[in-house]
Amino acid sequence: MKITVNVWRQKNADAKGEMVGYHLDDVSEDMSFLEMLDVLNEQLTLAGEEPVAFDHDCREGICGSCGVVINGIAHGPEVTTTCQLHMRSFKDGDVIDIEPWRAGAFPIVKDLVVDRGAFDRIIQAGGYISVNTGSAPEANNLPVPKEDADHAFAAATCIGCGACVAACPNGSAMLFTAAKVTHLGLLPQGQPERESRVASMVAQHDAEGFGSCTNIGECTAACPKGIPLDVISRLNRDLLGALAAGQA
Amino acid sequence: MSDTYTPTGAAEQFIEHGEDIHDTKAPSGPIERRWEQRQFDAKLVNAANRRKIKIIVVGTGLAGASAAATLGEAGYHVTSFCYQDSPRRAHSIAAQGGINAAKNYRNDGDSVYRLFYDTVKGGDFRSRESNSYRLAQVSVNIIDQCVAQGVPFAREYGGLLDNRSFGGVQVSRTFYARGQTGQQLLIGAYQALERQVAAGTVEVHTRHEMLDLVMVDGKARGVIVRDMVTGEIESHTADAVVLASGGYGNVYFLSTNAMGCNVTATWRAHRRGAYFGNPCYTQIHPTCIPVSGDYQSKLTLMSESLRNDGRIWVPKKAGDDRHPRDIPEDERDYYLERIYPAFGNLVPRDIASRAAKYQCDDGKGVGPGGLGVYLDFADAIERMGRPAVEAKYGNLFDMYARITGEDPYTEPMRIYPAVHYVMGGLWVDYDLQSNLEGLFVTGEANFSDQGANRLGASALMQGLADGYFVLPTTIANYLAAGPFEPVPEDHPAVLEARQAVEERIQKLLAVDGNRTVDSYHKELGHIMWEYCGMERTEEGLTKAIGLIRELRDDFWKNVKVTGEAEELNQTLERAGRVVDFFELGELMCIDALNREESCGGHFRAESQTEDGEALRHDDRFAYVAAWEFGGEKPILHKEPLEYEYVEMKARSYK
Amino acid sequence: MAVSGLIMLGYLLVHMYGNLKFFEGKEFFDSYLEGLENIFYPYLPHGGALWILRVVLLVSLVAHVYCAVTLWRRNKVAAGYTGGKRYHSKQNRTGIQRSYASFTMRWGGVILLLFIIGHLAQMLPNWLAPGGASDSKYERVVNGFEIWWVVLLYTIGLVAVGFHLWHGFWSALTTLGQNRSSTRKDSVITIASWVLSVVIAGGFLIVPFAVFFFGAGS
Q1: Which of C92, C96, C182 has its CB closest to that of A229?
Q2: CA A199 to each of CA A126, A204, A241: distance values in angstroms, whole numbers, following the listed order
Q3: What would you measure as the largest C-alpha separation in chain B, in angstroms?
Q4: Catalytic positions of B, written as ranges
Q5: CA-based nearest residue in chain A for residue B83
Q6: Residue pLDDT, tens place only, C12-60
Q7: What CATH number should be reported for the domain holding residue A148?
Q8: Does the predicted TM-score (pTM) go above 0.90?
Q9: What is the DSSP secondary-structure string of B458-512?
Q10: How many Cβ atoms sit within 10 Å of the Cβ of residue B29?
Q11: Residue C139 to residues B149, C25, C28, C125, C158: CA-CA distances in angstroms?
């Protein structure tokens, strides 16, 4: 099929960007979306133009590297990562708009590549359990109810791609932050640091310049891993607990 | 063993010989006490000195992140590098199945000794007994550590950890977190790493790629890296360097590795003198989604567990292009069940992969290009009912449907083998130190405790064993002599390495030809897959060496690398990696040509039994091939393998 | 935002209940309003309870508006707007699943604020008295709601109230940690917000519509 793509081109962080249109004449519907971009880049390279820079790595939907806004929707029309989106979701003659994640805390590096270092810093603020290697007790000394373990797992499947921020009209990273707070807060191992964790992670979230959550729910709808929205309520409950305990 | 075996020595024209390696630094004595002995004998670094000691860790996968975090906790000053935009994205994250540990929670007769035995046998008697035993011992600590970190392993209703049987072993020793065990373990290690970043002991440099190793007075003292955002070439020096940069499966272009996985870090170390061990051992996974067209950029693995209930078949008639549902039962060949009645569809990975290749070679393959076989769940759906199949395999079926656009509930899936893991890597001793002092190598990047083949759920185990438990002890023994004399930024060795990197980049940009980097990489991949893939022959390998050399020459004449050095330039990054893949590919073919036997992931067509099974030649090849970079010809050092505990036997799955 | 919003919501419920006493007739309605002045008398002076209420409401309102403005500014920067646009694509401007109400929180909030000011001016001190001033609040209500544009303005204002609550009530409870559902749409609170907003907007509209369309009170 033939398609037209409008891609955000921006030479570097300081340059002014713009949407640039390209035509592709021979796109197979079995191609993944990123393979379509590969084909575009081969075409550009042979024409002596600079190929489009975009982040990607595992191409199987788990590393969280890839992610662009396709036709105004983070990761495009299917609920999955950009790498797992296939061209059969589009049709001959389509015009596809491709833009980078937009958020104050995700500055653009080049074209479709953004800097998501803020996510790492939120984890640094407390997204862990403080246990040194070698000091762990025997694993089965600490039973965890299956239901809690399953819920913790569901929250822990976050791949840190940033689609929640790109989709959120407020540019908030509350779903990302809350997923980690929930993962660790549901497990017995996570209890000792539960209050200090939520307080410092939220403080870091705000310091990074992410927006505030107004409970619109676009984050969950765009999340390729289906991180549930109630994690945010859980974070808020923990935050109230931290406030009560004088930790926040 | 076969008496029809006549070695030809075809590799001799390509190689030179060096001295054998006899001492791997493993303690002697009873095998179960060796690790303890080593821990006791290893010198310690006092806490005050650790702060003054710098360690560079390249890579943030399971082996790298766990090592950096643990060394940071111990108080060393750690500098960590990864090419991804966050350490959390390293490709360990994509491991699906699970992690083995000899906990014997199921009371089914498992033990450290049994895990050790299975590992040695699974590796087709090409691994070291001492290392395998240590791996099995440490496996139990890994689970404790991960649980304490909050890794949400699957649990039973009583709240205790669940196990499953995996990879054709008879005990249930695999711990898992649904189909995302690698992700959960890596996130655990990543969080431990970020905790150390917050504590100030570890500095992480993301989007930095190591391009050379700095050797000073025979010791590894630093690395040259490129900041992939600004293009700046930086030099970093330290008291020791740890490479945890993963495997090189991408030499085949198409593999289940991430797009960025590469050999550059280890290859550059190899060029600086580090031996490369067993480069030809490649694991090819049988259940991947087949290639759909030329544009294909990577292959996706589907968990091996599918073979528990699915049946593999091809049409009996070559070129039969009827819809699979229109092919009647008696015109189908369930070839694995036919050839291997005892194990059927559950034969080990290498056997299942090769069998699929033979069917396709006979023209019976299905799907685009005839490169695929059916994996059929019709019987399972009839037997178990669709809801049960959905509950067990739903996520895999969804993944298949998303990628292929076909519904696996109504028509059989198509699968084909794909490169998945490499057992080869930089040679290391028992301490995980390469032959270069101060250069340590962990995880898939080293030549591994796995031998010629790896059992399922062992890669995660090895990465974490190395990073959390083995390396932190053994590296201390080396660092006890430190801190060493600091290496200034303008030391001649640093400047020389830096200049070499800059020159190579300029050379790549200067070619300005008319072929894209990817087109070369794809062609190299085709050569490797064709001649150094599932089945290798003397003729094919010799031909491949010639083809690779021609292609490499052509690359340096006609490649087109766009953009500039001082910016984010993904074409330049790929070009640099492909350059190293050319050289590695050649060495892989030479190693495969030299190893005139079939073992584990390496199958030489000349060396098979009458029934077409792999045939080892323990009398001649029970050694690790450690290759020294020799310019024109690589130099072979042999490390003989001796088995005191496990008797060397032929594998049989009939 | 959540706490101040819920305080004002509580007031609205009481206010609406009071409004419905309109149908009891002029005397009852006026004496009911008179009676409000004497709540907790003699523990509080005449009108004391009302003044406390007014202060609480005013503080809530100021806090609510202050938070809203702060959020608005902050989130605009956070969302990475450049040159007035976030995404250039003209497709899917309304997002994936977001409710129409969530779009109207800001400008709807501004409309509400204007409406509240107008409403207070009309109802409290006889300043604005469309249709004729009177000492009887009952008569003022009737006089006002016999005029079509007054009813129209009230309708606009109350629809804005409805939208504001539709998203606001859900959002407030979620912020206070009470959402247990995995998506916005499946939540019990979402349904409760929808019901609440219809009840409140409808409840308030009964009086003006009854006056205008059915001549109640004249």
Answers
A1: C182
A2: 9, 9, 10
A3: 75
A4: 349
A5: A57
A6: 999 999 999 999 999 999 999 889 888 888 888 888 999 999 999 999 9
A7: 1.10.1060.10
A8: yes
A9: -HHHHHHIIIIIIHHHHHHHHHTT-SPPP--TT-HHHHHHHHHHHHHHHHHHHH-
A10: 10
A11: 71, 10, 12, 14, 21
Domain that holds residue A234: 116-244
Classified as helix, coil or strand, C14 is helix
pLDDT band at B2 (very low <50, low <70, confident <90, very high): very low
User: Distance, in angstroms, between A19 CA and closest chain C CA?
Assistant: 8
Please indicate whether, in this complex, the C-beta atoms of A97 and C93 are within 8 angstroms of each other: no
Q: What is the CATH number of the domain that holds B344?
A: 3.90.700.10
Of the candidates A211, A164, A153, the one whose C-alpha atom is nearest the C-alpha of residue A187 is: A153
Say if the Cβ atoms of C105 and A102 lie within 8 Å: no
Chain B contact for A14, CB < 8 A? no
Query: Is B538 found in the same domain as B415?
Result: no
Q: What is the 3-state secondary structure (H, E, C) of B241-277?
A: EEECCCCCHHHHCCCCCCCCCCCHHHHHHHHCCCCEE
What strand order describes the sheet that includes B276-277?
A: B16-17, B635-640, B623-628, B276-277, B425-426
Would you call C184 and A215 a contact, using CB atoms and an 8 Å cutoff?
Answer: yes
What is the three-class DSSP state of A230? helix
Q: Residue A46 is part of a domain; what is its CATH number?
A: 3.10.20.30
Q: Which of B388, B420, B452 delimits the end of a domain?
A: B420
Per-residue confidence (pLDDT) for residue C126, from 0 to 100: 67
B520, containing H or E segment: helix B517-531
Q: What's the rounded Cα separation, in Å, for the pair B137 and B119?
A: 12
- Written as one string, the DSSP assignment of A65-86 is ----EETTEET-SSSS-GGG-B
- B447 to each of B57, B214, B624, how far by Cα in Å? 18, 21, 9
Q: Let me know whether A228 and A192 are in one domain.
A: yes
Q: Which of C54-64 are b and which e, b meaning 16 or more Cβ less than 10 Å from the residue's Cβ?
A: eeebeebbeeb
Q: Is residue B427 one of the residues assigned to a domain? A: no
Together in a domain, A50 and A140: no
Rounded CA separation C200/C210 (Å): 16
> What range does the domain containing B370 cover?
285-420
Q: Which helix (H) or strand (E) holds B549?
A: helix B538-558
Which runs of consecutive H residues, i.e. helices, occur in B19-105? 34-41, 47-50, 62-74
pLDDT in tens, B303-315: 888 888 999 999 9
Determine the 3-state secondary structure of B537 from DSSP. Answer: coil
